[in-house]
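Subject: complex prediction, re-run

Hi both,

The earlier run crashed halfway through, so I resubmitted it with identical inputs.
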Amino acid sequence: MGDHTLVWFVVGLVPLAWMVWVNMFPTGYIVSGGDVLQLLRVRDNFWFLHYEWAGRVSLFYALFYALDSLGVSETGQLSWYLGIFLFGSYVSFYIFSRLVFPRALQSVSMLMSLLYAANVYTLYVFTSTWGYTHYQMLYIFIPALTGLYMRALSSRKMLWAYMFLLVVFLASGGSFGNPAFALSLALYFAFLTLALLVLRKEWFNLTTVKVLGVIAFGAVLLNIYWIWPMVPQVRSGIAGVSSSTDIVLADALQKTSNAISDTVRLVQTGEKDIYYPYNFPYQSLERFQAVIALMLYIPFFLVLLGVCMVYKKSGRKEFILFFTLFVLFVFLVARVRFPFETINNFLFQLPGLNVLRGYDKTAIYTPFLLMALILSTLVFLQERKRLWTVAVVLLVLYGISSALPFYAGGIQTKMSYIFANDNKKNYQSSKYSALIKTPKEYSDIVDMIDADRSDAKVTRLPFSEGSSIGRANFPRLKLNGPAPERYMLRAGLFIDPNEVYFPHWRFGSDLENTSHDPRWMTDMYGFLGVKYIIYHKDAKSGSLEKTDGMMEFLRDRGNVELITENGWLSLYRIDDQYVLPYTYVSDASDPSMQESAVGILDKASVLREHISRVSYTKYPDKHVEITLSNGGDSSSIRTVILNERYDTLWRAEFVDVSGKIHPLDRDTRVPYANGWKLGDRDRDGKVVIRYIPVERFYQGAWVSGVTLVVVVGGLAVSWVRRKKSL
Amino acid sequence: MGKIIAQNSGEKGEEKIDVWSFFLTHKLDASLFAVSVLFGVLFDWNIVEIGIFTIFIAVILGYVSLRSIGIAAIFFLAFTPVLLFLDRDARAEEFAVYAYYFLVMAVIRGIVEVRSERR
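This time it finished cleanly. Structure:
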C-alpha cells in the first residue's frame, strides 16, 4: 500500500468498527452507575431536557432523539455512544495530522489517530460511566479544533477560520454540558495562542489579528445560545463550588491531584486501581500485567527521543509548541502535589478556576498533546528508517496492550470500575454493576403512572442511600447510582430523596429516622407536589427494615393508599388532601416552614388550610400562566406559589386585564417551592412565570443562528473562491 | 583539572574547555554558577536539587543543549518504571519530578533556540 490518503484512512476504520462490534452490550441492559444514568425515553423526554438544560446538550441528544424515534433500543444506543466517540476522535485527529504535519506518512497519521481514539484515557471514559453521556464529548473535537486554528493563523485565510467556527458549533452541541469544559478549552486556546506568539510560529501582523478576531468573536457568538442562559447562574455556581459542604474544594484538589509518572502514562493516580491496566480481568495473562503497565511509558520515552532530535529544523517549532503545552498541562493536572502545591493551591482557589477541580477538566488535553508529540517525533524519524520502524512497532504493541479491552471486548461486562474490587469481575455475577436490567415490573409501574397525565410528581422510598449524592443503592438490581425511574418516567416528574429540595435541609437521611412521626413524610411530599411513591423492595435490607413499618403505619392512617405491588416494587398514592397542586395561592400570613421533620409536622396542616387552587396552563418551555379571576381571595396577604424546586431564576409578572405588566416580588419565606407576593391590585389577570435561562436561550439562539448562517455562507464563498484560484 | 563539555545545539563536534580557563574568561557566568550553589545551600536543598538548579542556570546561559536535557530526562524517567515495579512509589515520583524539571528546562531551551532562528 503506498501512501494513498483514502486507503489508510479507511484501513484505520476497520479496528474501530471491530471495537464497537466486539463491545456490543447485552440485550435489555442500560447504564446506571456512579453519577450517570443513561438518558432513557429520549423521544418523549427530549424537549423537556432541552429546556431544562437551556439547550446546552440538545444538538448531541438530537441524534439520540432520532435513534430512539427510529426504534433503536436503549441498549443499542450504548453502542452509538461508543461509536460516536471512537470514530469521531479518529477523524478529528486525522484532520489535525494532515493539517499540521502534512509531511507525516498517511500510515502514521492513521496509527496515531487510532491511538488517540483508543488508549488508556478513553478506556477510563468507557469503563467508568462517563462515556454513555455527553460529558466527555469535547475529547472528540480537540485535535480538529487545534489543527484548524493553527491552519487559520498560519494561512491567514478566512476559509480555515470559518471551518474552525463550524467545528466549534458542532462541539458546542454536547461538549459544554458541564460549562467547566468550556473554561478549560478557552484556557487551552489561550495557552496555545501565547505559545504560537512566543515561538513566533505565527507572526502576528494585522491579517493574523483580524483572523484571530473573527475566530474569537465568532466562537463566542456561536456559543452564546448556551452562554447567555448560564450568565445569571455563573456567580452563584462559582460561589457554590467554594462554599460547598458536599464537596470541599481543598479535599477535591487533593483527591484529584495526579502524579507526574502517571500523567505521562495517561493514568489517573487517585483511582488507578479500579481502571485498566491495574484492574486486570485477563487471568490467563496475569503475568503480563506488570509488563503492560510498564509499556505505558513507551509514548513518553518516544517523546523524549524527539527532544533529543529536535535540533532538526523541519517540524521543530511544532514539536516545541506541543511540548510546551504538554509540560504546562502536566503541571495543571498535578494539582496540589509536590512541587506544585503552593502555586496550584493558589490558582485553583481563584474564582472561576475552582470549577476545574475535576481531574478530567485538564487531563482531557493530555492524550492529544502526547499523541501530537509522538506524531512529530515520527516525522523526525522518517529519514531514519530503522529507528522509525522500531518506534512504529513499539507503538503498535503499546496501542494493542494499552487498549486491550477495546479489542478483546467486555468494557462494561468485564471491566467496569464498579466491580473492580469485586472477586467476580462480571456484570452478571458481581455484587454491583453499571449495566443493569430493569425487570418488567418496573415498566408496569411506570406505565400506570404514565396514565396519569397530570403534573403530579413521583418519588421513591426507601432512601437506601448510595455511595454519594444523587445515588441510590438497590442491591437486587445491582445498582449504585441514579435510580432508573428518573428517566423511565416522563422527565421532570421525579423527586429523588438523595437530592436537595429544601435549601438548608437534605431530608433523605430523615426518611429512615424512626424517631419521627412518619406522617411528616406525606406532609412534606405533599408540599413538593408528590402524589406517587414507588416503594423499592429491591432496596438495602437495613433501609427496608426501617421503612416497612412506617409505610404500614401511613397506610393504616389513610395517609397513603397501596395501588398495586409486584415482586420488585409497590406503588402508593398519597391521599389527595396532602398533595398540593402545581400552582396555588396561599393567604397564610406566614407561609414559611422550618426545614425539618418536626417543623413540617407543626405547620403543614395549618398552611394547607390557607390554600386556594387556581387554573393554570403549563407550557413545555418552562413557562406557566396562572389565571386569577374575580378578585381571588379577599385576604390582603397572598402568595402565588409554583411547585418547582426553589430556584431564583424563576421570575413572575402580573398582567392585568388591560395588559399592563408589572414584576412580582419574591416571597423568600417559601423554601420548598417558588413564591411571589401578590398585592391588592393583583386580583384579576394573569400571573406569568418564566424560567430566565429559557428566555435567554431564545435570545441567544437567534444570535447563534444568524452567526451560523454567516459562517456557513462565508465558508461557501471562500470555498468557491479557493476552487477558482486553483 | 576537570574538564567540562559544552555542545552547542545544531553544531556537530564538541568543544572541550579547561575549567580554570572557563572561570577566568566567563567570570559572570561562573559567578552565577557559584550563586546557584549557594542558593541551594541556603534553602537546604539536597545535592541532586542543587545540581539540577545549577544545570538550570547553565541551560539559561546556553551551555546545555536540548539533546543533553533530553538525555537527562530519559535518565531520570528510566528509573521511574523500575521503582514502581519494586513498589517504591514515593521514590519513583521523586525521580519523575526530577525528570519534570528537565522537561521544563527543555521547554525553555527549545523556546530560546526557536526564537533565535532567523525568520
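Residues 85 and 512 of chain A are 42 Å apart (CA to CA).

- K.
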